[in-house]
Amino acid sequence: MNGIRFFIGVLVLCVAAVMPSCNPAPLEVNLQEEAPKLVVSSQIIPGDFMLVTLSRTFSPLKGEEQKDDTSNAFLQSVLVNRARVTIEYNGTSDTLFRVTSGVYMSTQVLLNPYTEIRLNVYDSLNGDQVQAVSFIKPRVSLSSVNIDIEVRASDTLYYLAYSFDDPSEDNWYLTSVLHIDSSRTLAQNNADIFSGESNYIFEKTESDRSFEQVSSRVEKRERLLGVKRGDTLALVFSNISFEYFDFLEARNRSEGLIPIITGEPINYPTNVQGGYGFFNTHNPDIRFFLVP
Amino acid sequence: MIRAFFFILITGLLQISAAQTITISGSVSNELHELSIGVVVREIKTGKTVKTNDYGFYSLSFIPADTIELVFAQFGYQKVKKIFVPPFPAEIKLDIQLEESAKLLKEVVVKGKRPVDVKEEVNSTQMSAVTIQAKEIKNIPVLGGESDLIKVAQLMPGIARGSEGSTGMYVRGGTDDQNLILMDEATVYNVGHLFGFFSLFNTDAVKNVKIIKGGFPANYGGRLSSIVDVHTNDGSDSKYAVTGGVGLLSSRLTVEGPIKKEKLSFLIAGRRTYIDKVAGLVNIPLPYYFYDVNFKLKFSPNERNKFYFSNYFGNDVMEFSDERRSAAIGFGFRLGNITNTLRWNHIYNSKLFSNISFISTRFSYDINAEYSGRSFVDTSLNELSKTSLFVRSKINDLGIKADWDYNLNKKHQMKFGWDFIHHNFRPNLVSTAGDISEFINSKDALRLSTQEASLYINDVYEPKKIIAFDYGLRWSNAFVKGAYYSGLEPRFSIRYSLTPSSSFKASYTRMRQYMHRVTSSSISLPTDLWYPISANLKPQTANQVALGYYLGWDKFFTNFSVELYYKEMTRLIEYREGARLFLNESFEQELVIGNGRSYGAEFLLRKKEGKFTGWIGYTLSWAKRQFDDLNKSMEYFAKYDRRHDISLVAMYDISKKVSVSGVWIISSGSRITPIKGSYFMPNTTFSGIEIIPLYGNRNALVLQPVHRLDVNFIIKSIKVRKFQGEWHIGAYNFYNRAAPYRTNIVSTASGYTYQQQGLFGFIPSIAYNFKF
């Protein structure tokens, strides 16, 4: 019996040794990559300003390289700095000014609901231009925000409870909770931008068709993971357009294990004509608070 | 159209034959008394030919000449010739037993006698079909040395392979779930072991397999693209026999014999992989194995009645656990099929034969995972948590099927019958506890029940020797919650003989499909579930026309065929990009509906007899899809579209003791959706950025062509009494060439670049088979 075991063991080891050496050499392939195009993103800070960022698409090979690049030099190389960026609404036009690399700002944004805002971008360096149109959705404000604390024998659990009134028409909501760890410095918290780490506790997109409440008042309660007393939280709550909801859903679907296993390609929708990204004009309700 | 069809049917049937017509009927079996399917029965003087049906029964009516010369022939068996002289009775009952041709192989070659089935393939009305015998399956080299009928089927023209080494079949531009896989008439829902790398068919238990790609007879239905009809051995009712084999990955053993001689016989065949045990001996944890068992009973109380009970069950099992000081993890799954078929064959008279089958099928899987230790959801917690997940899904079928073969007269061979299947689906029973229940809720499984019923009639009408019609009609129905679907499926084939050894054939068929498998577009998993159509989801249909030219070279025992086909498919199902299918009961929201079409040409040159056998198959094909919600509504190529596909299969008997076989394939490369760029996108609050990939048109990139050589040597040992052993020594991917299936970005000395990865390289194999 021992002899048989020894023989089988040797056989397995031989096979194990031979198999990796028999992996066929991979074959080269040339992929036709697309010429760089402009990428747009935007953000409204209520009562203050609108930010528009501009960058260019790049080769996935370059994207792979930048993972090893901690200097942000690659990011700087794809940001667009010589562009004329204008927004038009209600017959008026406003030219945005550049505040830093790839970031353009307007301080005169009207936030009247249902206003159509048209974005025009002309990149004077390459001659590329893109347009996008977005409507301002009515702002939905939070009615209440509370942190519920559940003290257990060995741990304390934190919950975020918030409510709002859902208007009668179809709406789509984006809820984000950001976390500033009190045990880390501001610089450390800010450094997460390029490191791939996220300072989100959670983010969710929802259609009001999925709500089960009878009245217009919607009440939510979410577990806050990894927070502790003294941390700062920011709750960002937005009534977003269906098109932007669709864009975020594509992003959500591309996350997780299954898309990685299946290699399923997911194309993100865009409202940018001639480019990529998304020009959105939702008007968020932002609340900051300290974990008690 | 339908009136005309019935007119032809009825007027055809009314042509009653002359009084001098005689009928010869009976059954054909092999030396183990197992009934033989597809044996060619030919009356030489009149040229009248039939094949034994799926139950080994034949019936031949004709007006005899001065003498009757009846020949029975099948690949791998010695021909049997019977001569009758006048006076002839009106009916002759004749049961035949065939003997293996190995003993007479040389004689066959030297005399150069024409095997009848060369001609039969030319003269049959059936087109777009291939039959593969167990012997061929066992001799052809495949991955890991494990003989596999699905892998052999993939070498036939018109059948595209899925990813390398998998048992996926994509027939004439169809999808993998458009193949009806039958084992002794029971539907098999998941044909793969080991994530699809091996099929569940134990070749020691398989008698033969018939694959129909088009020109479907009316007795088949339920899938759009192909029928794979697998028949298992009955078990000898005359003597005991044992066959088996020991391979690198698995071993198998089959025992058969009489319980009561020539009345009651049994067959039991088992197989198990033992890579887990072997790896365990050298302390490598590999907690995975699969096993399967085929069991069959045959009872022949008298000449007119035979009863069969077939059972298959098999499971893939994984049981992994790891316990350390801080945490314990357990993960496992068990997935498998069970099929049961109880058949009753009854011979009413020399012209009428029936088969009644009661069928049950079950496919199920269980997944369980357990974790105990620090919370993985909130790592800041001190309290230890215990988390568990259990998922179960299953599908159960119960069905009854009745078929009659009626040899109306010398010009008409009829089939008619009906079937009924009750499907019971229980997808996604979920039970969770602990942390994971914050994300996945426990829930009872949905209960979905549907019923399928169909009625068919089919007639082969041969008004003259040079022309024959095969026409039939199938009426299929499906009852689902809130909806009833029904449709007529006409089937029509014509054969026109140009010469005694060449013919032209054409066919038209319509197929409907009332089930589909929920799977990702890029990879099939064993946990993919089958779902029925619904009130919102209508049945898929396919219309196919095919034209063919067939030639039999008597001198070389060889057939040649070329077929052209065009197939249109409607209401095909795909899943929108990034669809969430796992544990998703609202999966219908993830579906998109579209159409497909495929066309192409298939060439097959096949030699079935002699020292040298094999085939060359070439397929030139296009497979396209159009979905309003995919690829910007533009038509695109299907995932397994292969422009060119060549298979060369050769088996040569070097001597009585040594044989060699080889397979060389070359085909156009796989299709993938290429990545064409990336971009940075700030997250929703501008507090971070992420990289988003940009993809090109769906399936637009063709990877490099695939070519591969597999070889196998068979060395037989000296027969000692009844014991015969043989060594199979082979190699998969002999010259170690990558068969690309995806692209990766890799770092090289000159920077980052794209590369195409292959899955399997050179894999040697050795196995020892025996029988006594």
Briefly note the structural class of the backbone of chain B: mainly beta
Treating each run of at least 4 consecutive H or I residues as one helix, how many helices of chain A? Answer: 7
General shape of chain A: globular
CATH-level-2 architecture of the largest domain in chain A: Sandwich
Name the CATH superfamily assignment of the domain at 2-114 in chain B.
Carboxypeptidase-like, regulatory domain
Mean pLDDT of chain B: 86
List keywords for this structure.
heterodimer; A: 292 residues; alpha+beta; Immunoglobulin-like; 2 domains; 5-stranded antiparallel beta sheet; 7 helices; B: 772 residues; mainly beta; Ferric Hydroxamate Uptake Protein, Chain A, domain 1; 5-stranded mixed beta sheet; 48 strands
Structural overview:
- The complex is a heterodimer of chains A (292) and B (772).
- Helices cover 21% and strands 40% of the residues of chain A.
- Chain A is α+β, with helices and mostly antiparallel strands and 292 residues long.
- In chain A, the strands form four sheets. In chain A, strands 6-7-3-2-17 form a five-stranded mixed β-sheet, with no helix packed on it. A five-stranded antiparallel β-sheet of chain A has the order 5-4-8-9-16, with no helix packed on it.
- The radius of gyration of chain A is 25 Å and the shape is globular.
- The N and C termini of chain A lie far apart (68 Å).
- In chain A, 28% of the residues are buried.
- The mean pLDDT of chain A is 81.
- Among the domains of chain B are: 2-114, Sandwich (Immunoglobulin-like); 129-231, Beta Complex (Ferric Hydroxamate Uptake Protein, Chain A, domain 1).
- Chain B is built from six helices and 48 strands.
- In chain B, the strands form ten sheets. Chain B has a 22-stranded antiparallel β-barrel.
- At the A-B interface, helix 1, strand 1, strand 2, strand 3 and helix 2 of A face helix 6, strand 41, strand 42, strand 46 and strand 47 of B.
